[in-house]
């Protein structure tokens, strides 16, 4: 430590600290404008000038300490005031009219007594750029401090901004020149959040009226689980700020969590229950709708003629109550959730391999990893805050292997990018295992002491020579070897993966053969390794599974088929429980088509848009006598239902979510629910009451307590604790258990305590291209929209992306006579869709890509009903299609 003096007091700081750090360590402060703790210092604004050893001014934010240095604060106050005056002089008076809660500059002027009337203010003439729906630039308010530019590169990693002009004309601008809306900006909001003057602002903040309330909650879009502080006025959301102490996001957010909130007050929100009468859905009172449902449910012939799809968008408490409703009020295990379409292979694969169905490590373990293997995951679009943190690790020196057929954003930053043909992961992972073994990159002691199945895997892997794997997958031998060594030679490698691994005919094998690599390398269940981490999708898909919204598992992954487990729940719930596992989502649809289902309740899932092979889903809903749907909007599924309940969104209710790395976090009501809507929790309790069943669980807090009392994995979790500790990783068994961010440090949770290697052969995908269907369609995510798009399409995100394009590799497009924007007919063995073409150099020829965020585009008309052989997860990533240009364009010079 180094001793320095701040005025007369002595303080010790670490070598490399700045004077600003020392001043703060001494409990004192100096003003700053161009400084943000998260960013490299710029030392451009001069409002932090202090005296060093009596020798005159230095910038506190950037000057390093040296032993014995005397920092003079009292003697230098006038320099700082002069520095501030110099910054403000030359700004228009408007700059000081910005409300103080939106401008550090205004607050500083008040604090240092810099009054506008004493300044040579100018009129301002540089104009605004309001082209972007969310980020609004007023150039006259810009002080060229460069915080936005640094935030864009050092937090977000997009490098979209620059400072242009000279002297007093220097101003922030998109690096591409031109308008903000045409720039590389990904609308994360980091620039707006760090701007100290309001030069960068957003629509809600342009309104000067004061904010009335801030509420802390957890984002309800993806599974990252960003902590958000939401500002409200008159029961409307003004702005959303990523919390700087957010346990996952550390002050960052993305275009959805940060900006896409206006769906809450969309005029399209359902505000009254609907019941189908004479073919039409008509508004009815809540009592009437609840009675209709209860009457029908009372009349079903067998408990198993009822099934419910629970919602990974809803809270833990709601999921807990929904599975309890199915099991207690109806008496069936027919409950499932959209994990089935998503990471069911992760739950199955990881549970078999390690014992528990969640990711093995805390996301923060990334900070100590020197290599990342990212397989079938596109986090800069789908988990942007995670994507940014991975990118920053790579910029800081970690090595990166990306395995993805497409050249994603992170692939561009990778040391090596393997581009397997879709559906050939297992061959690639076995090939990497072959190389780890062949080249001695395995941890033999770890294998001996903590692992089962090594001999079988070694025998199997011997068949996966680089040449053979290259033939199967199209990945070159050199790239395979490089990737194996980047992972195998790293001191602390981590694996992150996504749907490019799971949504396949052999998705569970994909997960298990990927996990093999971490086990061979001893990089899981150890203090150095980064483990195997699925980037789970929905805000609460981990929680929906944790809460037992699954046909074979009760809350806390306890098997319904296990007599002891069932007896405990039977005692707790004072009822008898069905012992045979219920139907999975695809089996529910089969049962409906075969006339075996009398009622299907779909909660917060737009199955007609997002489940595969829409035609067969439609047939299932048509065949089921009663379809009930809980949603915010009249989704495609709601339109096909017999009863629709309008429900509250995550911004309108209390409870908890569990994010992708097993973190319980609080969800808090930010605004009152829209008129006429109720929470999913209330709806299920009220129907149960009409069936004569008291489900208990009167409040979210009581529900979580009941869950904790029955599920040892969550025994120590309560709302009260989450209000003080903010996040708890399960397993967390008792009220004083701090939770376990990194799993298996002592032993794996399998019956024998060992990690189980999987000797699984490569098997081909369900669809292969042939002369009738020569292209492979891969479906996945776009950054601006979320799944069915029901929410994001009802926000200004539609201005960022207004339709569902089909990405086509330019040489393929040329061969088909397609130009950018032309409509193209896509036909698969299951259906047809028409989409506009987007030229996409990130694809290899022969593959096309689309999102599924605009149901009207009908992408899931195309996808196949085939699914993972272990879990039934659909093969969304491999559909054979043919393409036909619909409109012949005249190719020639435009006049
Ligand atoms: N903006 C946005 N964010 C989202 C969502 C959203 O809809 N929009 N949805 C959320 C949900 S529910 C989920 S589950 C997550 C999903 O997040 P991701 O798993 O990242 O999503 P995808 O884009 O579906 O697929 C990831 C990648 O898999 C690649 N891939 C396809 N086939 C193969 C293959 O055979 N092998 C390999 N190695 N890779 C392959 C694709 O090219 C794609 O880049 O995102 C969540 N976040
Ligand atoms: N082609 C293709 N299709 C896919 C995928 C793919 O990669 N390719 N990915 C699949 C994956 S991984 C997933 S997870 C699914 C997601 O598919 P879905 O779960 O169907 O999609 P979402 O749009 O997230 O949510 C569905 C509905 O929930 C409503 N909702 C939001 N919050 C709440 C709430 O609190 N309560 C209730 N009751 N409703 C609410 C929304 O308004 C929306 O209508 O899509 C799958 N479909
Ligand atoms: Mo998902």
TrEMBL record:
Residues 1-77 form the 2Fe-2S ferredoxin-type domain. Pfam families: Fer2_4, Fer4_Nqo3, Molybdop_Fe4S4, Molybdopterin, Molydop_binding. NCBIfam families: Fdh-alpha. Coiled coil: none annotated. Residues 212-268 form the 4Fe-4S Mo/W bis-MGD-type domain. PANTHER family: NADH-QUINONE OXIDOREDUCTASE SUBUNIT G, RESPIRATORY NITRATE REDUCTASE. Keywords: 4Fe-4S, Iron, Iron-sulfur, Metal-binding, Repeat. Residues 133-164, 177-205 form the 4Fe-4S ferredoxin-type domain. This is Formate dehydrogenase major subunit. In the C-terminal section; belongs to the prokaryotic molybdopterin-containing oxidoreductase family. It comes from the Bacteria.
């Amino acid at each position: 430590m180094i001793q320095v003096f701040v005025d007369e007091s002595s303080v010790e700081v670490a070598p490399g600290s700045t004077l600003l750090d020392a001043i703060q360590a001494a409990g004192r402060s100096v003003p700053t404008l161009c400084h943000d703790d998260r960013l490299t210092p710029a030392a451009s604004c001069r409002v932090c000038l202090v005296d060093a050893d009596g020798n005159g001014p230095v910038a506190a934010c950037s000057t390093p300490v040296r032993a014995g240095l005397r920092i003079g604060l009292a003697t230098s106050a006038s320099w700082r005031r002069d520095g501030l005056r110099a910054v403000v002089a030359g700004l228009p008076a408007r700059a000081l009219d910005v409300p103080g809660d939106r401008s550090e500059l205004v607050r500083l002027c008040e604090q240092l007594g810099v009054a506008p009337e004493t300044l040579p203010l100018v009129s301002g003439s540089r104009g605004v750029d309001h082209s972007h729906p969310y980020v609004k630039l007023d150039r006259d308010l810009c002080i060229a401090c460069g915080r936005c530019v640094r935030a864009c590169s050092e937090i977000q990693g997009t490098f979209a901004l620059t400072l242009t002009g000279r002297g007093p004309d220097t101003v922030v601008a998109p690096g591409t020149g031109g308008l903000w809306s045409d720039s590389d900006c990904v609308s994360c909001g980091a620039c707006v959040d760090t701007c100290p003057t309001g030069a960068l602002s957003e629509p809600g903040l342009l309104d000067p009226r004061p904010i009335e309330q801030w509420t802390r909650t957890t984002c309800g879009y993806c599974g990252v689980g960003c902590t958000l502080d939401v500002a409200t006025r008159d029961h409307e959301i003004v702005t959303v700020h990523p919390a700087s102490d957010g346990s996952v996001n550390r002050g960052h957010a993305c275009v959805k969590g940060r900006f896409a909130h206006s769906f809450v007050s969309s005029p399209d929100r359902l505000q009254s229950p609907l019941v189908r009468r004479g073919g039409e859905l008509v508004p009815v009172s809540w009592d009437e709708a609840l009675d209709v449902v209860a009457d029908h449910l009372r009349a079903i012939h067998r408990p198993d003629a009822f099934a419910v799809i629970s919602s990974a968008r809803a809270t833990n408490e709601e999921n807990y109550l929904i599975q309890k409703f199915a099991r207690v009020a109806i008496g069936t295990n027919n409950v499932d959730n959209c994990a089935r379409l998503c990471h069911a292979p992760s739950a199955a694969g990881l549970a078999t391999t390690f014992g528990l169905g969640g990711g093995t490590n805390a996301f923060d373990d990334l900070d100590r990893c020197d290599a990342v293997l990212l397989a079938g995951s596109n986090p800069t679009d789908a988990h942007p805050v995670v994507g940014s943190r991975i990118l920053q690790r790579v910029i800081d020196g970690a090595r990166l292997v990306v395995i993805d057929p497409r050249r994603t954003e992170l692939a561009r930053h990778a040391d090596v990018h393997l581009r397997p043909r879709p559906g050939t992961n297992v061959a690639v992972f076995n090939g990497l295992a072959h190389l780890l073994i062949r080249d001695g990159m395995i941890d033999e002691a770890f294998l001996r002491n903590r692992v089962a199945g090594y001999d079988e895997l070694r025998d199997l892997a011997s068949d996966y020579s680089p040449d053979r794997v290259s033939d199967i997958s199209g990945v070159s031998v050199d790239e395979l070897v490089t990737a194996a060594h980047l992972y195998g030679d790293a001191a602390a490698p981590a694996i992150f993966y996504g749907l490019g691994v799971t949504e396949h005919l052999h998705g569970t094998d994909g997960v298990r053969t990927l996990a093999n690599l971490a086990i061979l390398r001893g990089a899981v269940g150890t203090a150095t390794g980064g483990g195997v981490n699925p980037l789970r999708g929905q805000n609460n898909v981990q929680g929906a599974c944790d809460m037992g919204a699954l046909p074979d598992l009760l809350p806390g992954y306890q098997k319904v088929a296990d007599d002891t487990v069932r007896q405990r729940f039977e005692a707790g719930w004072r009822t008898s429980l069905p012992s045979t596992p219920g139907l999975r989502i695809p089996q529910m649809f089969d049962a409906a088509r075969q006339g075996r289902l009398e009622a299907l309740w779909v909660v917060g899932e737009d199955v007609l848009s997002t489940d595969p092979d829409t035609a067969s889903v439609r047939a299932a809903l048509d065949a089921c006598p009663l379809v009930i749907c809980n949603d915010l909007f009249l989704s495609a599924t709601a339109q096909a239902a017999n009863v629709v309940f309008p429900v509250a969104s995550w911004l309108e209710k209390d409870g908890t979510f569990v994010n992708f790395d097993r973190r319980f976090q609080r969800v808090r009501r930010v605004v009152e629910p829209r008129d006429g809507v109720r929470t999913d929790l209330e709806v299920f309790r009220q129907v149960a009451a009409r069936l004569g069943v008291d489900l208990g669980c009167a409040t979210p807090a009581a529900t979580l307590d009941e869950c904790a009392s029955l599920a040892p994995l969550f025994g120590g979790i309560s709302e009260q604790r989450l209000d003080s500790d903010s996040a708890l990783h399960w397993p967390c068994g008792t009220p004083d258990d701090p939770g376990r961010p990194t799993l298996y440090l002592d032993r794996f949770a399998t019956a024998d305590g060992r990690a189980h290697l999987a000797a699984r052969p490569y098997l081909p995908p369900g669809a292969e291209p042939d002369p009738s269907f020569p292209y492979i369609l891969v479906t996945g995510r776009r950054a601006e929209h979320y799944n069915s798009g029901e929410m994001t399409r009802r926000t200004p995100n539609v201005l960022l992306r207004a339709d569902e394009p089909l990405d086509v590799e330019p040489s393929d497009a040329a061969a088909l006579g397609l130009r950018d924007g032309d409509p193209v007919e896509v036909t698969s063995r299951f259906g047809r869709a028409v989409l506009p073409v987007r030229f996409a150099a990130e694809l290899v020829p022969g593959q096309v890509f689309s999102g599924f965020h605009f149901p009207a585009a009908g992408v899931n008309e195309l996808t196949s009903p085939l699914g993972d052989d272990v879990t039934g997860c659909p093969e969304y990533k491999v559909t054979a299609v043919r393409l036909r240009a619909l409109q012949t364009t005249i190719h020639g010079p435009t006049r």
